[in-house]
Structures are given as structure tokens and as C-alpha cells.
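Here is one chain, start to finish.
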Amino acid sequence: MRIVKEGYQFIRVPLILGLVFLIAGRGVVLIAAGTLCVLVSLFCLYFFRDPEIEITRGDNLILSPCNGTVLEVSGNETEKVIRVFLSVLDVHLQRSPVPGKVKSVEYKPGKFLKAMESQAHIVNEQNVITIENESGRYLVKQIAGILARRCVSWVKPGDVLKPGDKIGVIKFSSQVDLHIPKNTDIKVRRGDKVVSGVTIFATLNK
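Its structure:
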């Protein structure tokens, strides 16, 4: 199983500490501390996993940029928005929902409300990755939560992406929003479980 590079430090540090405590352990406290550190390392190994997937292929598809549970589907006269909550058990790797070129990557400082709070997508710290193609503009918002204290983008302006290409990761529980053109047919609804690069979020109406 592959691990995203941002996870290495979270895996190594508690593992090394845990082994030191266990090897030197003389007493219940050191053994308990060592066991706890090893368990934390194993959890981080699971959390930062990068599983093999088969990207969904097809014309006019808009794929899920993340794993998680759909929080909300909304829209207005200019766009539609799908918000997804990522629990600590979900894969936290984000992927491009469409083919296109990265127009911008914008960091916005902010608060660290719980990812499921109604105002989290507005006031929380976030990265906004804008992807453009002939059908319009797509915004992938990586939003920090109460545990997620860092959103990492792996792309830069000018990068050309294919559907399902890896674009970033969020460290621990968080939220991802996808803003898409209004001329789309939404295929998911609140409560749906979605998989990055696999689940079809919407199709373009030509």
C-alpha cells in the first residue's frame, strides 16, 4: 500500500518513540506509552494511505475530488456546489474532477471550526484550486477542520491535469467543496458515500 509523503513524519516519529519506550520499558508506564505510540503510528499509516483505484472514464463526466460523505448539494444562477465531509477514516487524498489546466492555487487563512459546521466552508482556513477547460471553471476547495490544520496542494498554475490526477492532501478530518458550472446534471445527494476519482458527481449538459 502506498503512503502519501506528507504522512511519513506522522508515522516515523511515534513509531520510533514507541519502540524506544518498549525496548527500554521497565514498568507499566513505559510499556503503556510505547504501545500507545505504536498504535498512533499504525493509525497514521492507515490515515495517509494512497490506495490503488481505477479512474472512472467517460465523456462529460465530473468526478468526485475526494473520499467522504456528501454534506450538501446546492446551486445558484451561476454555479452548483457539492460539499463533502471527510472523517478521519476516509482517504484524504484529493484528485482532479475534470481534465483541464490549473488557473490558480489560492491559500486563504482562517479559523478551524468543525468541518461539519455550516460556516466552516466560509471562515475556515482553505486552499482553493481553480481548474479551467472548455466547459468552464471548476473550484476544488480544501478546507481545514478542527483537527485538520494543514491543506497541502500538489499543483501549481499552468499544470495540465487529467481526470483523477492527484492534486493534494488534507491532514486529518476536513471538508472538500467542489464548485462546478450550472449546466450540469448532479448525480449525488446528501448522505451519499463518494470515492475520489471513481464516483460521478455530475455530467455536463451539452
